[in-house]
């Protein structure tokens, strides 16, 4: 979809109010979605748009200011008590609706697809006649695995087919290939409590795989019906939505950007500040799907005296994965586990590496860290998947490598460690192409376009 000029929509000069809803937020969570929302609401203020952030929490209701913007937290399991008794369902208000209504928004922008901020909340806002926008920051609205890798072997086109998805998901749950295939051919069962009482919970879940895939397809259609637009951060997201017959006019492609703070930093020295070794950095969650172990496996294929240091920053919830990484670092002094790097320290971490490695085993919708590296002139070694392959140009400003084979990664690391001129060349080509102001321009234009097509609401001045 092509957006009209940013001045379209609403009355001239009228400020818009937007509620941004997320499943997690600062200070207890600092992922890519949270960073995107924080930066977006700050940049939107230049477009006469006032913003409120409402975010789910495991704790109690809370209200505070973060980065100059009001944040309201609501419990994930908050009871949906009807606050207004009325014969008309559309006039009743749940606790979540009361929270949204108190911000008096013109629009509602959903940035998550979780139990705390997802389809249930989108439906409640729709009943309030407030137009909604959804940004698809993760693959989970389409993929049961959450990775968009078909059978963990190749990128998926995203079409939700209940048989294909059931087989792929069963393989991810550890079933042998023949059993996964047979399960995908079973009838589409919605497993009842009576069935669960006769079989294990795991078996019941597997038996309902086809029904779960069909439910995901219905939920995606509901997302499209309830929202005015779906924002796709990458072209592959747009294509996957189109595969599921989401109308093209509903989809807006708008890429992410590094934070404004990265704009003020000088490009790093191309010769590595006189260090003997080349420093390769990883920044992300220590989980299998982020692929930090790929770098360890690649390093094992290289000579022990290769002048390279691998800095791995991040934490995760997979204790076994973390233990494997710790054992690898104990065996190889070239591997340094940095632990959690606080978000405000990310520019400092990136500024002290020569190459950023992004070996993800799933289809990233971004990631923002690639844009951050681009802003600092740091070449990227990335998995040839999803948003990474849309942002890194092989042989021009980095390397695009297989997500499932450590040997090409080992060769790329060898080149980086032994050919400083090549790293310098790639670094010189890694230039910033998008700013947070560009993202805000996209969203401000989108919001006003939506309001221009809702004249009744625009005149009411909601």
UniProtKB/TrEMBL annotation:
Domain spans labelled Glycosyltransferase subfamily 4-like N-terminal: 31-253
EC number(s) stated in the UniProt entry for this protein: 2.4.-.-
Occurrences of domain Glycosyl transferase family (ranges): 270-431
Keywords: Glycosyltransferase, Transferase
A UniProt-annotated Pfam family: Glyco_trans_4_4
Class in the EC hierarchy, top level: transferase
Origin: domain of life: Bacteria
UniProt keyword annotation of Aminoacyl-tRNA synthetase present: no
One Gene Ontology term of the molecular function aspect: glycosyltransferase activity
InterPro entries found in the cross-reference section: Glyco_trans_1 (IPR001296), Glyco_trans_4-like_N (IPR028098), Glycosyltransferase_grp1 (IPR050194)
Entry protein name: Glycosyltransferase
Native organism: Reyranella humidisoli
Lineage: Bacteria, Pseudomonadati, Pseudomonadota, Alphaproteobacteria, Hyphomicrobiales
């Amino acid at each position: 979809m092509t957006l009209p000029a940013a001045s379209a929509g609403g009355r001239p000069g009228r400020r818009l109010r937007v509620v941004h809803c997320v499943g997690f937020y600062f200070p207890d969570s600092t992922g890519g979605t949270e960073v995107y929302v924080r930066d977006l609401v700050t940049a939107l203020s230049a477009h006469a748009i006032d913003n409120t952030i409402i975010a789910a929490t495991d704790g109690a209701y809370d209200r505070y200011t973060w980065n100059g913007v009001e944040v309201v937290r609501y419990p994930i399991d908050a009871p949906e008590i009807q606050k207004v008794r009325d014969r008309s369902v559309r006039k009743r208000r749940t606790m979540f609706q009361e929270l949204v209504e108190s911000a008096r928004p013109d629009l509602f922008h959903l940035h998550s697809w979780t139990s705390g901020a997802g389809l249930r909340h989108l439906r409640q806002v729709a009943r309030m006649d407030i137009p909604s926008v959804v940004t698809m920051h993760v693959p989970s609205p389409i993929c049961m695995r959450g990775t968009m890798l078909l059978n963990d072997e190749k990128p998926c086109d995203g079409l939700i087919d209940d048989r294909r998805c059931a087989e792929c998901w069963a393989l991810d749950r550890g079933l042998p290939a023949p059993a996964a295939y047979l399960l995908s051919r079973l009838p589409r069962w919605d497993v009842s409590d009576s069935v669960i009482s006769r079989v294990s919970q795991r078996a019941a879940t597997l038996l309902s795989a086809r029904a779960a895939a069909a439910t995901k397809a219905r939920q995606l259609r509901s997302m499209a019906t309830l929202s005015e637009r779906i924002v796709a951060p990458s072209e592959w997201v747009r294509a996957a939505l189109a595969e599921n017959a989401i109308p093209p006019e509903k989809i807006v492609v708008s890429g992410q950007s590094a934070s404004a703070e990265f704009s003020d930093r000088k490009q790093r020295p191309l010769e590595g500040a006189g260090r003997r070794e080349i420093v390769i950095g990883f920044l992300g969650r220590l989980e299998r799907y982020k692929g930090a172990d790929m770098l360890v496996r690649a390093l094992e294929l290289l000579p022990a005296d290769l002048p390279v240091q691998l800095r791995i920053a991040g934490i995760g919830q997979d204790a076994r994965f973390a233990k494997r990484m710790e054992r690898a670092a104990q065996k190889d002094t070239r591997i340094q586990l940095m632990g959690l790097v606080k978000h405000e320290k990310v520019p400092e971490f990136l500024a002290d590496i020569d190459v950023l490695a992004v070996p993800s085993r799933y289809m990233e919708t971004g990631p923002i860290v690639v844009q951050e590296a681009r802003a600092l002139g740091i070449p990227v070694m990335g998995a040839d998947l999803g948003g990474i392959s849309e942002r890194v140009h092989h042989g021009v400003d980095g390397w695009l490598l297989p997500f499932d084979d450590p040997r090409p990664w080992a060769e790329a690391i060898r080149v980086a460690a032994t050919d400083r001129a090549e790293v310098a060349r790639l670094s010189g080509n890694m230039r910033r192409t998008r700013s947070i102001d560009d993202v805000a321009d996209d969203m401000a234009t989108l919001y006003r376009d939506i309001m221009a097509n809702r004249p009744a609401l625009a005149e009411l001045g909601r």
